[in-house]
Design a protein that fits this description.
- The strands form 6 sheets. Strands 2, 5, 6, 7, 12, 13, 14 and 20 form an 8-stranded mixed sheet that branches.
- The protein is an alpha+beta fold and about 1150 residues long.
- The protein is about 45% helix and about 15% strand.
- The chain contains 20 helices and 26 strands.
- It is flat, with a radius of gyration of 49 Å.
- It starts with 5 loop residues before the first strand and ends in a 35-residue tail after the last helix.
- Helix 15 runs antiparallel to helix 18 and helix 16 packs antiparallel against helix 17.
- A hairpin with a 6-residue loop joins strand 13 and strand 14.
Length: about 1150
């Protein structure tokens, strides 16, 4: 849109862009206003997707299927700081990079679908929209652009499998290597058909059904603003759009063919976007022959979804991908399968069953050939008999469904010269074929009625009425819309224009020939027009006088005397004038008479047409009633036959079931005794093994219990030492406090300061010693726990192996019992063969147990754990970030997912492949070995490996030194992926060794990340630990001073102290958790015990006193009164 203020122009913009790539272009904004203009919002560039559906009923739906801002770039901000920016007059250029989504549907210029007289046109368009938002004069630009998808590879295609069985004994299997088809290209099917044992199947069809869901009202909607018309239920249509006839199947036979289906170029692609909903299914139709005057039985088998791709979608597959049957052996041992070419049925042309070749075609010669010309020659298989009169009446209805613009011309249209328009319509319809009608009417026909010879003669005389044959041979040699036919029509119109206004023929010979040709091409669609009333319409037109000039008639003999006076030229002129006046008068009279006769003929023809229409309606109604009655009778007969077959089938099944049950019982009785004896022996062995294993486990448990008691005793001793150390530190702290109080009173300041400094140094020394002792204790404890855990794991693993051994022996017995349905001889042989299996299996399990126990005795060093902050979307650092095949999956599944996800906004695409997936894929599909010229040597690969590792380590330390915090989250993932991609350029050329080094490089990068983060968190925790020690002294002083007297006050003070400890730079949150745990252990828990003890003492009798001072700090802890408590020195069980 060009406004008064300015205009947009796009430079270096490609006409077509692939989905999943980056679009680059220059945007120029030419500001035309002299004083410039200000915008009310940012200048933006958007990629917009618009889906449009237009029907012949006048409904037009248009919808922007993408949410606002999905693909949006800001060209320029509308503010410069806090003030609105003024865009001055001139040219403003912007360089724009736009990422085209990889899941967008390709552009569709115009797709057409016709069903039941409704013509629908679909289009999917993309625009690049540049906007300058302004209150007074906004302007924008919508530039169209075409988007195509990347070629589909083999792994993105899904095979087509159609398998079904019917109750009447038909088994059909149709396979194809892919279910994504192009309508304008041929397709190969692997076909297998098994017919019933006692019935032929003369008619077998493959039908493609098109399903449309068209909008019910006109609307224009966006993803954010949808009117009520967009939520109305859609109008659904379903019709057969392509029918492929297959060879008949004799009774009790199996037919195996490789079918080549001809293209069907008039089909729209499968689409589901906004108001567009086009879907396809394919099925097999089998028709049994009619018997006893009834209609044939029709069965629809193996209905399967089908996906038609747009014409712009390319495939990255081999040339012979569709022609290779994956189920056949590749060594050439399989039998050759015949190949048949099957064209789709065309309206108005008899159904032609394809002919089988005389001999099988070699697979190397399976190339698609051009479709043969449609001829009326005799086929190898018998063609169906002519349709019944009822079907002749129904034929125009089917053809009108297939081509809604085709209709039979009325006599009035023929007289008014409208047949030429009908011929042009027919020509356009044949040039662009529409969906053919169903062909089941030819298979479900009644036997033709027998007419007498007299009736046949009457019908022949009625159908072949005498007409003019002038130029009929010449007209029949050319199609209705050929060049010669158009020239003849133009010459006829010129001849009519040259004559008088009354010289108009009532019926033209050319019109008769054209209508005859149309009726020949489409039988039943155009009835033959009635012959003209006269053999030649020009007989009504008066002919010009044939009297030559200069000859005088008797009617002017009275002027001879006057002619003697006039000159010869004057006499000739006067005679010509009089002759012309007489001729004009006669022609006017004859024209009036001809007009009167034409009017009478027109009225007579209209009356005859009305009577004929009424007779046809009555005959059609009678025929419909007869057909309905026949259908009802046939349905009753089919139901009775089906019921009888079901009863017979049930009786046979009951008899077979009784026989099988008797045999089964006999086998069970024979095997039950032997199975019970074997089970008894195995059970005794299992019980003995369980008792021995139970004794060994109990002894091991006693030994572990003794070790646990020793460890607890050592822990108790360490706790007492730690408590004594705490009491000594507490005494020093009291001395320090006393010195501080003396300093406040002003006594001996210099001496007290020196003493205080010495005491503080001693306190710091004690703190360092305590920290060293705690670290040593923790290390010894960790080693002891690790050794104990390894021993426990070994014992558990041994117990699991023994349990698995017993379980396998039990499962072996159960497997023997489940095999009771086998024959007696085979069961006995299998049991003899499996006697040695338990012993061999126990021996192998014992070896596994010994190997596992050896490996457990030497625990491996622990690997660094993966942090939670690293578990983000970092799975695909190298390639394959685009999910190209999302839209071209199976249509049924894609449709359900799209409908379920439609109410919510589309989520961002997340790649889900691992780092090594692209490399592994490349090695699988690439050559088996690389040449020495292209593959790098080991030294180069190691250099690239070390360089990437050192570069990543320097990058992490640089970020830590600059920002003060380690890199984490998305930045860490991006940095790791950058280094991996740089190293993969060289390592990917090294084959499997390069792939292994790439995986090892990623693992070492993660180890470096965890080490740096652990060192950083340890530093933060040490700073917080010093704060905790200060808080511990402060809280103890407050408790001694009586400022903390209850648990509630203690909790409030602890909560405030924790909030005061700021943990800045804690990227994972674990520093705060460690700080909180240390605070709970060293500050809150000891004070909680003291507070509870004080509350308990204050609640006892007044005569009871506590020993020690400092508010109960030196009181002796009481023993816990709970019987189940394991800590004898605990005051309160935590």
């Amino acid at each position: 849109m060009v406004g008064e203020v300015g205009v947009f122009q796009l430079r270096q913009l490609p006409a077509t862009v692939s989905a999943g790539t980056m679009l680059r272009c220059w945007v120029e904004m030419h500001m035309l206003a002299v004083k410039g203009a200000k915008a009310e919002d940012d200048l933006t560039l958007e990629l917009v997707c618009v889906a449009t559906c237009h029907t012949s009923a006048g409904v037009e739906a248009r919808e922007d299927v993408w949410p606002e801002g999905r693909v949006r770039r800001i060209l320029a901000p509308y503010k410069d700081g806090n003030q609105a920016k003024l865009f001055e007059k001139g040219t403003h250029s912007f360089n724009v990079h736009v990422d085209v989504p990889d899941d967008c549907f390709p552009s569709v210029d115009k797709a057409i679908a016709v069903q039941n007289g409704v013509r629908a046109e679909f289009s999917i368009e993309y625009f690049i929209r540049c906007s300058f938002p302004s209150r007074d004069n906004p302007f924008s630009l919508d530039h169209p652009i075409s988007i195509v998808q990347l070629p589909l590879s083999v792994r993105m295609l899904s095979p087509l499998l159609m398998q079904d069985r019917s109750p009447l004994g038909i088994s059909v299997s149709v396979r194809a290597n892919r279910e994504q088809w192009h309508a304008e290209k041929p397709q190969t099917l692997f076909y297998s058909f098994r017919s019933p044992s006692k019935s032929d199947v003369p008619t077998i069809l493959i039908e493609i059904i098109q399903k449309l869901a068209l909008p019910a009202a006109t609307y224009s909607a966006t993803a954010e603003n949808r009117p009520e018309e967009a939520n109305l239920p859609k109008v659904e249509y379903e019709n057969v759009v392509a029918t492929f006839p297959l060879p008949p199947a004799p009774a009790n036979s199996v037919s195996n063919y490789t079918i080549k289906l001809y293209p069907v170029p008039y089909l729209a692609p499968s689409m589901y976007l906004g108001p567009i909903d086009v879907d396809y299914v394919i099925r097999v139709v089998a028709v049994f022959p009619p018997s006893g005057g009834a209609n044939g039985i029709v069965e629809f088998l193996a209905t399967t979804p089908l996906n038609f791709l747009p014409a712009s979608q390319e495939l990255d597959i081999a040339v012979d991908f569709d022609d290779i049957d994956p189920t056949l052996p590749t060594d050439g041992s399989a039998n050759e399968v015949p190949i048949i070419m099957v064209p789709p049925a065309i309206p108005g042309v008899p159904l032609q069953i394809p002919q089988l070749p005389q001999q099988a075609i070699h697979p190397s010669q399976r190339q698609f050939q051009s479709p043969p010309q449609q001829t009326q020659s005799k086929l190898q298989f018998s063609s169906p008999p002519p349709p019944s009169p009822a079907q002749s009446q129904l034929a125009p209805v089917h053809q009108n469904n297939a081509a809604p613009h085709s209709r039979s011309p009325s006599p009035s249209e023929v007289q008014n010269g409208k047949v030429a328009n009908l011929v042009n319509q027919f020509s356009s319809n044949t040039a662009h074929p529409v969906a053919p009608p169903p062909l089941l009417a030819q298979a479900l026909h009644h036997p033709p009625q027998q007419h007498t010879q007299k009736q046949q003669v009457q019908q022949h005389s009625q159908q072949h009425q005498p007409t003019k044959t002038h130029n009929s041979q010449q007209s029949s040699q050319h199609p209705p819309d050929s060049l010669e036919a158009r020239l003849k029509r133009s010459e006829a119109s010129k001849d009519v224009a040259k004559g008088d206004e009354y010289d108009l023929p009532s019926y033209s010979e050319q019109t008769e020939n054209v209508v005859a040709n149309i009726a020949t091409v489409i039988p039943g669609a155009y009835p033959k027009p009635p012959p003209p009333a006269a053999t030649n319409a020009k007989a009504y037109v008066p002919q010009q006088s044939q009297v030559p000039a200069g000859v005088i008639d008797n009617s002017i003999s009275g002027i001879a005397a006057v002619a003697a006076i006039l000159t010869p030229d004057q006499q000739r002129l006067k005679m010509q004038q009089e002759e012309l006046e007489r001729i004009k008068t006669e022609r006017e009279n004859l024209a009036k008479e001809a007009e009167h006769l034409r009017e009478q003929e027109r009225l007579r023809l209209e009356a005859e047409a009305e009577e004929k229409r009424k007779r046809e309606e009555e005959a059609a109604a009678a025929e419909r009633a007869k057909i309905e009655a026949a259908k009802h009778a046939e349905m009753v007969k089919i139901l009775e036959e089906k019921k009888r077959l079901e009863e017979e089938k049930k009786a046979l099944e009951d008899a077979e079931r009784a026989r099988i049950e008797a045999e089964k019982q006999a086998i069970e009785r024979a095997e039950r005794l032997k199975a019970e004896e074997e089970a008894r022996r195995i059970e005794e062995e299992r019980q003995k093994a369980e008792e021995a294993e139970k004794k060994r486990i109990e002894a091991e448990a006693k030994r572990l219990e003794a070790e646990r008691l020793k460890a607890e005793e050592a822990k108790r001793i360490e706790d007492e030492k730690r408590r004594a150390e705490d009491e000594r530190i507490e005494a020093l702290r009291q001395k320090t406090n006393e010195a501080r109080r003396q300093l406040e009173l002003g006594k001996q300041e210099l001496e007290e300061q020196e003493q205080l400094r010495q005491l503080e140094e001693q306190l710091e020394e004690l703190k360092r010693e305590k920290q060293i002792a705690a670290e040593k204790i923790a290390a010894a404890k960790a080693l002891e726990d690790q050794r104990r855990q390894a021993e426990i794991d070994r014992l558990k693993r041994d117990a699991e192996i023994q349990a698995e051994k017993i379980k396998l022996q039990a499962e072996l017995q159960f497997a023997k019992e489940r095999a009771e349905n086998e024959k007696l001889r085979e069961e006995i042989e299998r049991l003899k063969a499996s006697k040695a299996a338990p012993a061999a299996q126990v021996h192998s399990l014992g070896n596994i147990s010994n190997a596992s126990s050896k490996t457990v005795t030497t625990p491996a060093p622990p690997l660094p754990e993966k942090d939670d902050y690293a578990q983000e979307d970092d799975e695909e650092p190298l390639q394959q970030r685009r999910a190209v095949g999302q839209f071209y999956k199976a249509v049924g599944l894609v449709r359900e997912q799209t409908r379920s996800a439609k109410p919510t906004a589309p989520a961002s695409n997340k790649p889900v492949t691992s780092v090594s997936a692209p490399v592994a894929k490349k090695s699988d599909h690439g050559p088996s070995s690389l040449s020495s010229a292209s593959s790098p040597n080991e030294s180069q690969m190691k250099a690239a490996y070390n360089s990437a590792l050192e570069s990543y380590r320097n990058r992490l330390f640089t970020h830590l030194s600059i920002s003060g915090t380690p890199i984490a989250g998305r930045e860490q993932t991006v940095a790791r992926n950058d280094e991996l991609m740089a190293a993969a350029k060289l390592l990917n050329k090294g084959g499997s060794k390069g792939t292994t080094m790439l995986s090892s490089l990623e693992a070492e990068m993660r180890v470096i990340e965890s080490e740096i983060l652990e060192d950083y968190e340890n530093g933060l925790f040490q700073q917080n630990k010093e704060k905790i020690l200060d808080l511990k002294e402060t809280f103890r002083a407050m408790f001694d001073a009586g400022m903390i007297t209850s648990v509630k006050e203690l909790n409030e003070e602890c909560k405030g102290a924790l909030e005061g400890i700021k943990v800045e730079g804690d990227v994972s949150g674990r520093v705060y958790e460690r700080t909180k745990a240390a605070f709970e252990e060293s500050v809150k828990t000891p004070l909680m015990r003291l507070v509870l003890q004080r509350e308990k003492n204050s609640g006892s009798s007044s005569t009871t006193t506590t020993t020690g001072g400092g508010g109960g700090g030196g009181s002796r802890p009481e023993k816990c009164k709970r019987a189940q408590c394991q800590n004898p020195r605990a005051m309160v069980c935590q």
